[in-house]
Amino acid sequence: MVNPPGGALAVGNNSDADPFVTNSSHGQSQPHRYSSFDGNLFSLYSTNSPSQAKRALQAHLKDTDRRIQDASKLGTTLLQQRKDLSERLKEVEKHQNENEIGPELRAKLAELEKEYNEVGRESAKAFIPKSKASGNDGAGSTAGPSVLSSEAQASPSKVSVPSRKQRNQPSNRVHDIEFATEISTSLLSQVRNLQALLSERDEELKASNLERSRLETDAEGFAQRLRALNESEQRHKDENWNLETQLHELIAASKESADKEQRLTQNLVAKRAEHASAQREIDELKQAHGKLGEDHTSFKKQHELEISGLRRNITSGETERETLQSKIDELTSQNQELAKAVAYRFQKDEQSGSRDVASENEDVI
């Protein structure tokens, strides 16, 4: 048995298996984790054209994205179905003691069973490869001899080679070795081209993932900013409403103030008229008071003149009084002396009369 050249990729885990022979005993026992390549697209790899390989990889990438979206939708559907199943289970537990299920609950359970079967079929379509989903047609046929190491999927090119029994025949041994060498060389060149394309595609995917992360970060920032703007808008609406309310209140207060100002203006005009009338009265009173002051001044001067004359008269009267008093005192003293003289003379006359009477009495005796 001739060993394949270095770099050839084997499919099975059995080291004795021939990588160039399709054998049902060494076929895949487990389905691929990812979706299988389209054989029509990967048959283009035999042309060694990078553009065709790129188109095939892009088609596979689109198909993978579609399957991711389907899986996401399926996950949402499964979560909703799980929620519905939990709700129906609770309803059934509530009716556990009853002998029969009500018609409404039976209809809901039938509808839920129908949805469950539909979701099961969708799950099978999403997770089972096309070759398995189409009736397991590949079970009886031969599997692909090689797979891409990075995707663990079917080989991009299917090679029709003779069986081990035919290759072990001596007549075809050299031809089989040359044919296997050519196939290995072709496969190696295709694998290298695919690896280069995959590396380039990985770089593009990394760049796109970085750009996607940046865009997601920007989108999250924009979403936060939008939420902040919405909150700010709502806050500004509330503030605007408060300001409008305050504005209406201020307008009402302004109207009330204007009415009050008008009333105060009217009162002020009336008060000014009253003030002017009072001022005229005050002026008239001032004039009358001035006139009375002048009369009072003239009367005061006249009174002072009269008082001065009276004072002079009083002074002259006092002088005359003192003169008369001195004369009265002098006359009084003269009267006293005269009275004393009269009294003394009268007393003397009485004494002389009494002696005359006594003498006469004596004469009578």
From TrEMBL:
Keyword Cytoplasm: no
Keywords: Coiled coil
Species per Swiss-Prot/TrEMBL record: Cryomyces minteri
Transmembrane region(s): none
Polar residues composition bias: residue spans: 12-33, 143-160
One record GO biological process: microtubule cytoskeleton organization
Name by which UniProt lists this protein: Uncharacterized protein
Domain of life assignment: Eukaryota
Coiled-coil spans in chain: 78-122, 261-341
Molecular-function GO terms, alphabetical: tubulin binding
Annotated segments matching region Disordered: 1-35, 128-174
GO (cellular component) term, any one: mitochondrion
